[in-house]
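Researcher: We are triaging several targets before committing to wet-lab work. For this one, the compound of interest is zinc ion. I'm pasting the protein sequence and the ligand SMILES. What I need is the predicted three-dimensional arrangement of the protein with the ligand bound, expressed as structure tokens, so it can go straight into our comparison scripts without reformatting.
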Amino acid sequence: MIDRLHGYYRREKETMSNKKREAYLKERLSEILRFGYRHSKTIRSRFDAMGLLPQRIKGLKDLEKLPITKKADLVTSQKQTPPFGGFEVAPKKGMRRIYISPGPVFEPGERDYEDTRWAQALYAGGIRKGDIVLNTFNYHLTPLAFMLDESLGMLGTTVVPIGPGNISMQINLIRQLHVTGFIGTPSFLMAITEAAEGMRLDLKRDLHLKVAFVGAEIFPESLRQKLEGKLDIIIRQAYGTVDVGCLGYECPEKNGMHIPEDVIVEIVDTDTGRQLETGATGEIVATTFSKIFPMIRFATGDLSYLVEDPCPCGRTSIRLGKILGRTDQITKVWGIFIHPWQVDEVMAKFPMVANYQVVVTRKEYRDVMTIHIELKEAVADKLSLKQRMEKEVQEVLKVGGEVAFTERGGIPDRAKKIDDRRVWE
Ligand SMILES: [Zn+2]
């Protein structure tokens, strides 16, 4: 137990050299592949179908030889082989819980929760022993709230297992119990903050919050600044999914999300499953070392990129950059992924914009990107605005595009943010 408690902040683990980390992950990978081959029907049948033995996967690069598992594959397998799709390993001590997350996906929960990744994330986010923490994630069926609850226990904090909803009760409990930590989505924290303001509370004096740990949503920097300022707390985010757990977390430096040691994260080309080089945007794919429900190359459907430069906090792991959105919303222009989220980021800098839409077409075998813009009111110097916008588009999207102004109502309601009109012949 003590070892487990200390695992998440063992500095020698968080400060491993790249070479040591690679060796560590290689060892854990070969261990989980052999374990999965022996105990999980589905993992074994996949290896057998390829005529491959786990021993042949010698390093992280070799993972490319294995197929990607998408959420839809998991759902299909579970329908064929209920309830867990043959991915599961029957645990010696039995299951503590069976979780059900959207899909639906059934997930066995181990008797003793041993994964220290969330605890590591919570610690890096500033949550400490002695904190009283409001866990507003949903305790109903899905595993996230339980994973965090167990991890908060590892850190020695006290949890108020409230779940989401009932904002006035949340505010009362924060006050009555002197809650110091909040866990939940950023938008829920905003809802609580606005409600407390509506009750004319002094957010800094009447609430004793010190730290918030948020996730499960895109967390814009502007929202962080607003909330940190209003509440006088620090807010850090982590990224993960219910299927594969924590895949990244922010440290005090908030410059990307450190990838925990006990998972392998790849960024891959969504079409081919090949690993992409550092900095390139692709799908986040994770391999976990769970001894009850191991996931080998599970595709999250989320897009990000890797950051390798050293972090001033002293942790040496590679980091995930921003989460750029979902793979099903991306469009490739000139071979570069663009995503509605990036367009939002550009447009946020121009308050005079009422509505916009990116249209991608093809002219003489070349991609053409046009950004149609409706303005709230007429501006004096349209040409200079157009030039500033085009510069910003180039900078954020890394692809050039032409800005075209259109009259109010020119962009249909509910039009796609990025409309791909290319015809491929
Ligand atoms: Zn750091």
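Researcher: Any quick observations?
Model: The longest strand covers residues 353-363.
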